[in-house]
Specification:
The protein is about 15% helix and about 30% strand. By secondary structure, it is of the alpha+beta class. The strands form five sheets. Strands 1-2-3-4-5-9-8 form a seven-stranded antiparallel sheet. β6 and β7 form a beta hairpin. It is elongated, with a radius of gyration of 25 Å. The protein starts with a helix and ends with a strand.
């Protein structure tokens, strides 16, 4: 009994000092969260992005913090703006921001960036603040910092940095070497390019003509323009068919089917596995209907992108790779809150794709 009690005491001491054998498991990733005026997305390699995202249609500049997983994971702060920025005029709650931060002009994001130690200084300076004014103009709204500290702490938690020397906010004595490394990317193998499909338009038309009841069940019954119907070669024996299903003001959808090349009447709905990190589907969602879908037989990639609204400042984009038998999720971007630049959604899932030889 005394030996057992001694063992328990040693285990408790190791847990208190952060022994790896008793470290708490990391939160599941990929993951998407919202904290007041900030949103966070961490992908399957635990690279995390915290992004300012006020719910209303504010014209405030967008501030981001992006950090890779692991002891030496790169940290970048960036601010995007529709106009030139005088970084020396930045003000935190009305007071000048640290003047010795060396912002780098980054035309690719239409803004400015800070890297590593300077980005870390900025994060810690802003975490306790309320607003960051990025323009001296009186009409430019400030960047809201409500929720930033919670977003940064969440990143530390996902990446296993809480109580570590490398933490964004909750810094401790833990060695940088104790931070878990980034997981390896899943590897997908694309199927070889199939032989061409003769008379693809006629094939798509045949599938539509023989599946009237199915189309009535899943699609707009009043739709009359079927010019977007397409069929693509999938394998030597099968084709992938995309039939126009719904039309909207700024995007349209297709019904996805797989059919034997010799028998279009035998086409069946193609159901895709959801990408990791995808939110729980709404009961009204139809997984066989894809918005703005496209398939490339050359690399076996099926893609879809759906705007949350016409501004495209929220939405979802996903890709699948055909491996010869079925489709496997290969990438996923998502942003539920409408805010920021068009199409600038948070990446939640990535893979490494090996092309067929």
């Amino acid at each position: 009994m005394q030996r057992l009690l001694a063992t328990v005491k040693v285990a408790a001491m190791l847990a208190l000092v952060g022994g790896n054998a008793f470290a708490a498991p990391l939160p599941a990733a990929p993951v998407y969260r919202e904290f007041k005026d900030w949103i966070v997305g961490c992908d399957n390699q635990r690279t995390c992005i915290a992004k300012s995202a006020v719910e209303d249609e504010s014209d405030a500049d967008t501030l981001k913090f992006q950090r890779e997983a692991g002891a030496s994971g790169t940290l970048m702060a960036s601010i995007a703006s529709d106009s030139a920025i005088d970084t020396s005029s930045f003000r935190l709650d009305g007071k000048p921001l640290a003047p010795d931060l060396h912002w780098i002009n980054a035309p690719d994001i239409g803004g400015y960036v800070l890297m590593n130690d300077e980005a870390l200084r900025l994060a810690r300076n802003l975490a306790a603040g309320s607003t960051l004014q990025t323009s001296s103009g009186s009409n430019q709204p400030p960047v809201s910092l409500r929720g930033l500290s919670a977003a940064l702490l969440f990143i530390d938690d996902v990446q296993g940095r809480v109580g570590n020397q490398t933490a964004l906010l909750r810094v401790g004595s833990g060695a940088a070497s104790a931070v878990p490394a980034a997981p390896a990317l899943p590897v997908l193998r694309a199927a070889p390019r199939p032989p061409p499909l003769p008379d693809a338009q006629a094939f798509a038309r045949a599938v539509r003509e023989t599946h009237a009841a199915l189309l009535k069940q899943h699609c707009d019954p009043d739709l009359s323009d079927f010019s977007g119907d397409t069929a693509e070669p999938l394998t030597a024996s099968d084709a992938l068919v995309l039939l126009t299903c719904w039309g909207g003001a700024y995007q349209s959808s297709v019904l996805l089917l797989r059919a034997p090349r010799h028998a279009p009447a035998q086409a069946e709905l193609a159901v895709l596995p959801p990408p990791p990190g995808a939110p729980k589907p709404d009961p009204d969602d139809d997984p066989t209907v894809l918005t703005e879908a496209d398939y490339s037989p050359k690399d076996g990639t099926l893609s879809t992108s759906a705007k949350g609204r016409g501004l495209a400042d929220c939405g979802v984009a996903a890709e699948w790779v055909f491996d010869g038998r079925g489709f496997q999720p290969s990438s996923f971007d998502y942003q539920d809150r409408c805010s920021g630049e068009p199409g600038d959604w948070l990446p939640l899932y990535r893979t490494h794709i090996e092309k067929a030889r």
